[in-house]
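Minutes, project huddle
Topic: does the predicted pose make sense with pyridoxal-5'-phosphate bound?
PN asked that the exact inputs be recorded in the minutes so nobody has to dig through chat later. Recorded below.
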Amino acid sequence: MQDFQYQNGQLFCEGVALSDIAQQVGTPFFAYSHRALTRQIRAYKEAFSEVPHLIAFAVKANANIAVLKLFGNESGGADIVSGGELYRALAAGIDPQKLVFAGVGKTKEEMTAALQAGILMFNIESSQELIALDEAAKTLGVQAPVALRVNPNVNPETHPYISTGLKKSKFGIDIEKAVSEYQLAARLSHIEVVGIHSHIGSQLTQVKPFVDALQLISDMIDRLRAQNLDIRHWDIGGGLGITYDSENPPLPKEMADAILPLLKKSGCNIILEPGRSLAGNAGVLVTRVIYTKEGEAKSFVVVDAGMNDLIRPSLYQAYHAIRPIVEHSRPEKVVDVVGPICESGDFLAQERALPEMKSGELLAVMSAGAYAFTMSSNYNARPRPAEILVHDTSFDIIRARETMDDLLRGERIPEILNTPGH
Ligand SMILES: *Cc1c(COP(=O)(O)O)cnc(C)c1O
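Predicted holo structure (tokens), as shared on screen:
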């Protein structure tokens, strides 16, 4: 996380001290580095410059419209998985012709909205979905551009919750059934087959599963073309991992080098859907220590951010590095960093050696740019944190901290409850 470094004992994001942001906006907050986000998308563009390509950022990783706009300015598009993400991508000014739409449960309403917007391609995951899309397109009198999400049954060797390309997965169409599904697609009057898609999982730390999967897809493209299907967009998915702890994932360039021969041979427009690898290490969650507490068997650092703000440690036993915002040389102590939520599963780190912390001091939870704010909730009636975009020596609030009124938005007490006894 090269854009988060200590300068004179203070943790900075680019040229801004995180403690200055905390003073102005309070805690907890997410801070994203403009420079880090830009560097990451440029690394992908450079790595794939030899083929026509589109970097469609996976919106579910970080859906803030300022982040989407930043990638849009770098000629990026978006990989969306809901009508809400479509709405966000359009609100950020992303060209609809740079949008691809995945997900196993797209409703007809969502399909209709995407058809009206004129998106590049639907990544279809079942035959019922294909038929529903054909009907939605017929109603509007348009052709729906379609890729089938093919499940190559390759083990990505990552956490089971983020493996998506195995036979038992709810995602995609089994590779053995793909040809017959494509034949169905070709028969439907308002479907136009334009591409193929696969996405095998997330936080991949090796190149080999990509290569294996894409080799299988490459063979499939040949078979489909032999049946006169015009496969012109090849969406190779996302999934490249990042360093949270000591992982050593491939760089976009290393991934590209391993697969470019296959991609070039296809003559396709290549679509990539990176999420985590674009945003994960471009953000941190800053939180304040409320209390320290000595339990019978453990020591706790109780902070003002919890599992509702960052659920990855609780949900996937994920590791996030934690750093004090002010460097100090106090002795280290093994602690659990826990939030204020009334759940034992509410922790940001367990059994972690940290320099001894005191009430009121600040900590940065690293690698919190992806699957962090987007997975947050209001559990325990906690307003969600602010989001900040740092650019060089200044910063902008790109999402205001939620207020108490935000918590009640849309709720009402019906009249019957105002007339007790009736
Ligand atoms: C989640 C997802 C991605 C992004 O995955 P990362 O691991 O964040 O790169 C891409 N494509 C699809 C279809 C997804 O569901």
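Observations noted during the meeting:
- The chain has two domains: 4-31+280-408, 103-272.
- The two ends are 61 Å apart (CA to CA).
No decisions taken; revisit at the next huddle.
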